[in-house]
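SAMPLE LOG
Freezer: B-3
Tube label: C17
Construct: single chain, 771 aa
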Amino acid sequence: MPEVNRSAPPTVGGWTRFVTARPRLALLAALVITALAVFAGSGVADRMGSGGWQAPDAESTYATEVLAREFPASQPNLLLLVDSGSASVDDPAVAAEAARLAERLKAEPGISGVGSYWETASPALRSEDGQEAIIAARIGGDEKTAGETLDRLAPAFAGERGPVTVSLGGPVAVQHEMQTIIQEDLLRAELIALPVTLVLLVMVFGSAVAAMLPLAVGIVAILGTNAVLRGLTEFTDVSVFAMNLTTALGLGLAIDYALFIVRRFREELATGADTRTAVGTTLRTAGRTVLFSALTVAVSLSAMLVFPQYFLRSFAYAGIAVVLLAAAAALILLPAALVLLGPRINSLDLRRLLRRRKKTATAGAGSADASPGRGWAWLGALVMRRAPVFAIVTTVGLLLLGLPFLGVKFGTADDRQLPASAESRVVQEHIRDGFPGSPGGGLEVLVEGQGSRADHADLKARIEQLPGVLRVEGPVAEGPAAYYSVLPKGEAVGEETQQLVRDLRAVPSASSLDISVTGTAAVLVDSKDSIADRLPWALAIIVVATLLVVFLLTGSVLIPLQAVVLNALSLTAMFGAVVWVFQDGNLSGLLAFTSTGDIETTLPVLMFCVAFGLSMDYGVFLISRIKEEYDRTGDHEHSVTFGLRHTGGLITAAAVILAVVMVAIGTSRVTNTKMLGLGIALAVLMDAMVVRSLLVPAVMKLMGRSTWWAPAPLRAFHRRFGLSEGESSPAVAPAAVPDRGGRGSLEDPEPTAETEEISGASRDLGEPARR
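STRUCTURE (predicted):
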């Protein structure tokens, strides 16, 4: 039996006085800072990139940069698809117009390496039906500069041009159009998520005033993060995809934290505490849990900083910023608002009439059914009575849902991420389906050094002998550098072509020559190797941080291990669904996307870090309440049921709201964003409704009181440095009525008139008054 602290509850102290001493001034300062953040963060999306999948220290990245500098024609990123209609591309009128277009393009600032079918007569630049051909060029500069150049060129070159119709494609056009669509989709997602979230919050709280507070915290976090990202774009590359995470986590976590704090504040008011005392108790209990949760989520997201790809690092920047800002707003601004509102937090209670009718119907009955959260208590008791069954069935079910991930195939993002109507995708599909060879799938072999003609001829012969090589062109030389173009037999990023990349890098050559290989398949090989090299470090950061934070929260050795295992298990359904839906193409018609037969390499890493952090968010909420009750009573089973009863509705409500936000993000027309939104929504719901509701109580029952075990040195460490939600002792002793088994009853005492003042909506979701 743990020792029970029977000292009087601490008075309102330092931190509470700091955040509530000048509540109006604090809110005014927050309003000014938010307005400045709006100004500072304006135009942030225009400064972001739409790439970032390449490792900057990879061989393929180096070779691409050298080729773009020394041989611009070898790395075209702008393609003009010239359609001659019913005529042939060799028709004199068509050829003359194409030549004029090519000359005009050469004269444009920022354009280099212009070449065309009509200039080179290369069969790879002419469609098989003879009615389309390509003018290829390279736009210089970074992604922002290239996008601006493309916007300037499009009106002058795209559309009807005499006897031909011109459409713009190539990597620059694909990335630029993807960036534009993401910005449009993000605005639509916000317009969907905000009103739906507000309605759900009103249903949860009953009070319109209480419902507005979490939304306000979320908006502050989002606007603040946009300003942070805008500042980061001055120093490093940031992916436009990170904007989606900012919105989702900003709303989701801010609502989670505000739900937890507002609910606890209303409980304290219901016990008769004055406003400032209620705020102080709330910050010492729920506030501390919010701080633990925010640290855990931030650490999970920070693990992406170990990867060199700026696509992944961008999500770490955005995620850490929005988590810390959401927690700061919840722990500083929200208490100030609560001090000013006091009991008016329950104003504009839209369900008061319904609640009064329900109260009248049950008055004097003394029915246990009136007890708040009874449904969750019943579920907890049921799970623990059949703990082995629930543990085995739930675990097996989750593992079965994750089985499709065993067949995952990794690839690279291409134009098929875009909706079918996007112009750049249409161009790329025409090239992919109508032109000979494997457009976009060629490999370039960069050769540097002072080699003789014989050395280069010998290297070309060795390359031609490799299995998987269809044709070798070159070398094209410029000073001490030269390159070969290698056309593979297989698909652009298929396993055969990936093996060809490895074979090319292993080809022996003259000692004076240095070989580097690039191309789509080479980028994929390097990306997979880079992630595989750093993934153990990322996992170690997440696991060690989780173990440490949960130990500081609980003082147990086994609960942190349980948290890591069960959190990972909760993600199996997400990974299985990602492969079954987005790789294998199931539901592609319903969800309006095109399956490429693989998953972009960085997406599983991103989804794991985000979903694991969110799972820990809910885990901390549940464990902290169980720990608080166990410290108070020493009754393990009662504490588990109590924790589920008092947080089950909160976690479920928070998960549903976050899932709504993620599904809104999942309505994006860009496949990767759709996958991110829908996948994390599924993970969040599975974690809240299956793992937290069924698996955690079952496992804790099976572990029994050993759940709380720790060796003596660690117990001493926790007593000195650990923090938990149950710092203050309760004003009343626990009401534990012996049952037939001799243990304390799992029933809570009957609700009082004070506890009935808490929102009826919260009670329906299992949000009880404080005992």
